[in-house]
Amino acid sequence: MINKWILIFMIAVSGGVISTAIAAEDDDHGLHAEDIQPWRNGAEIFVNSTLFETDFGDLSGGPFATDDPGIDVNVQQGAFTPANWLRFQPVGRLLYWNGTQWSETTPNGERIEITDALNNTISFRADGVDEIAGIIGEIDSNGGLHTHLSFKIFDASNTPNGSSGAYRIQFRLFESAPQSNTSVSIATSPIAIVLNRGLASENFESAVTAAADLDDNAAFVAESGLLTIQRVKAFGTYYRVKLQYTENNQFQLIEAEEIIDDH
What we know:
By secondary structure, the chain is mainly β. It has two domains: 2-23 and 217-259, no CATH class; 29-214, no CATH class. Helices cover 15% and strands 42% of the residues. The chain contains two helices and 20 strands. The chain has helices at 2-26, 201-214, and strands at 38-41, 44-47, 51-55, 65-66, 71-72, 85-97, 102-103, 111-115, 121-125, 128-129, 134-138, 146-147, 150-154, 165-176, 183-186, 191-197, 218-221, 226-234, 237-245, 251-259. The strands form five sheets. Strands 3, 6, 7, 11, 14, 15 and 16 form a seven-stranded mixed sheet that branches. Helix 1 (2-26) crosses helix 2. The model is unreliable at 1-32 (pLDDT under 50).
């Protein structure tokens, strides 16, 4: 029964999902390589994009570190309050691109750490993220801030290392008074950063394209024809489903995993 209903559902939405995926492939992913550029309007923080991409392997940091993307406040669009702190709150969990799909497990216990402005380390792992908020920096007298944090990848042995693939982390930006955890402005949408660890450019761009669909609850990989939907409700139960594109704009259900609804 689940097979029938999910297929009916997918027939209704498949055209839109495929169109989105094709459009994403045509997008210039170079746009995702620039700095995160937030600005403030009232109590809300806006950003130039919610998806950014970068590569481990800075000359200064070695093959398992990077300080990109940077954070550069767009004062012309909307300044922050001088002397306040711009901060980030980790959300979700670390995801790993295995070449065909995004996975909630990593090959060798990898984690990504961000070192913040006060030299605190905030960890992103496959089983979750640190609850503490990181500090990006202090807003200057003009309401701006331009800085770069350190991103590093470690394996299960606590050594700077990482299996070849792509890794995605997410956080929300917020602004607070100095020494305070109370938000005075916040970005409602999380920012995703996709980090490349040793993939060829075209393979990494496939990961970025699929990552763009994750927040829409569905990710379609054109090369494999695999469509993953993170959350589908059928008969009062939630499922994570995988479907294979066949012909005539149809999908065949190949996996349905029951999940616990936490929404």
